């Protein structure tokens, strides 16, 4: 198979899968079999591109010209290769998990759920392989609209309100800021292509470059840099597999991926260093990391605590990119992968707890580790990764971010990482301690307390998925070679 065909198939496979899922909706077993086979086929297709990219090739496809000099085009560079591997690989595990969760909780509209999920993955791959800002913008918007039905899945007033907040913030920021930033970039440079070293050097200078960067950062609302973050906790009304999609597989990853891609391939790290136009971003991302961590400390609802943890962890990627050193850029790319594995494990655990025990609050989890040892062990692994402790993937990415901060003598960034690590421990370790070392509450008359008398682990598909993602979180610590090579190739031209 040619590499050009593989690029097209990366978007076509999930799109065709969505059609087949719709046609098989009346037969749940067939529908879910098609979902799994589609996810596996996509991952194998993406793997077909990995070898050539590692060997230095950059396959590309020019699809069509929308306007003179503005094309929908795709190019597989190292960062996009990493993102596509994460999204396609985790779709398999999320699909397995979804079977157990959607059936275990007797969710309605399951066919619609699988259709929209497949469309969202197709958009994610299009975004990952975008060769220019126009292509990225188109697939960014498709991803937003395809995930709206997933956020509003339950159909009640709470879900609809959360989904309106989700859609309103993401569309407003992309239209008001991102589109304007893209138009400004084209006006200044005559191109929107992603190029090693950037395209803005000598075209936009001084304070204007800082303003343009600000438009991109806040236009890419999916990166959830404060104050453009409220959509993310609002979207927690969605079923847990959707939360996993939002936080680990596609949506927020498309945000920080886009931020890193714009900094590296549109602005150029060397250009930003010379101009000093990104200094403010260290402070804004650092504030987001600390503020979101402090909010997470006060959340009793488990999914909301994880949501604010995600806001904080996303800004690790933004902070690392803003440090503007090659090693910190490597850390930014690695943290996209590390956060994906760790956070999907945490959300899978939250959904497992809800499915088996119907518990949603942190205060209800005393002693649950003895009833659900697989789930809570996996949760502990994901939590240790978010804190940044070995032997987990989070340690690898944080190590590079810290090294980047130290090499540039950026003590603000270094202080943020150290303080936030303590805060991460503050809102994760008590959950693990309570699960394994505190006594469960006795059964109360309303049967809504923190007791765990009549449940064990969640259904088998959930256990398989959560065990797999926890294992990946550890494996990345011991075998980071592929992710590290892709990250280093991304910054290969930076001195």
TrEMBL record:
Compartments where found: Endomembrane system; Membrane
Transmembrane domains' residue ranges: 6-23, 35-54, 66-93, 113-131, 137-153, 165-186, 206-225, 245-268, 280-297, 306-330, 378-401, 413-437, 458-479
Any Pfam family: Proton_antipo_M
Keywords: Membrane, Transmembrane, Transmembrane helix
Keyword Membrane annotated: yes
Membrane topology, record value: Multi-pass membrane protein
Residue span(s) of domain NADH:quinone oxidoreductase/Mrp antiporter transmembrane: 130-422
Domain named NADH-Ubiquinone oxidoreductase (complex I) chain 5 N-terminal: residues: 71-114
Transmembrane keyword on record: yes
GO cellular component: endomembrane system; membrane
Main localisation: membrane
Protein name per the record: Cation:proton antiporter
Organism of derivation: Terasakiella brassicae
